[in-house]
Amino acid sequence: MTRGKPATPVWFTIVVMVLVIWGAVGVFACVQQIRLGAEAMGPADAYYRRLYASFPIWYNGVYALATGSGLAAAIALVLRSALARPLFLVSLVAVIVQFGWLFGATDIIAVRGAAQVVPFPVFIAAVALFGVWLSGHARRRGWIG
Questions:
Q1: Cα dihedral 123, 84, 71, 78 sign
Q2: What's the rounded Cα separation, in Å, for the pair 75 and 69?
Q3: Across 79-84, average pLDDT
Q4: H, E, C per residue of 9-39
Q5: Which of 63, 88, 109, 143 has its CA 20 to 30 A from that of 3?
Q6: Residue pLDDT, tens place only, 13-43
Q7: How far, in Å, are 67, 90, 137 from residue 64 at the CA level?
């Protein structure tokens, strides 16, 4: 008789399902931004139209990498695959590149204010970092891999 992976706790399953939903929403938002540009979140003002028009060609690719690898990582957790951790790491790096460029190369903070534009990207990065930690924790516990 072969031994399988240990049973995962209920909290882990719930958190993983939340991460899958989070990832799916992120991919949807990315697709909407690629399709609609500045209008993805509703009617955009002139500043956001100019900002989106200034994005380099690679920006949407990094956004797609961040969201796509995050969703893939969450699905890997569902499948109990050790690929979750490297996929979460890819997502985290892409998030840092995406928002690092946005905050470092544009005037969005000066125009809109840090309190308006920084909290959500910080939360996004925190979720990706949490995914890295969770997948490592799950691997150490034998729940994945």
A1: negative
A2: 10
A3: 97
A4: CHHHHHHHHHHHHHHHHHHHHHHHHHHHHHH
A5: 88
A6: 999 999 999 999 999 999 999 999 888 878 8
A7: 5, 11, 26
Which residue from 129, 130, 131, 106 is spatially nearest to 117, judged by alpha carbons?
Answer: 106
First to last CA, the chain: 19
Q: CA 28 to CA 22: how far, in whole Å?
A: 10
Q: 100 Cβ partners below 8 Å, 6+ apart?
A: none
CA neighbor of 66 nearest in space, from 31, 37, 17, 106: 31
pTM: 0.93
Place of tokens 């590149």: 97
The C-alpha atoms of residue 118 and residue 2 are separated, in whole angstroms, by 50
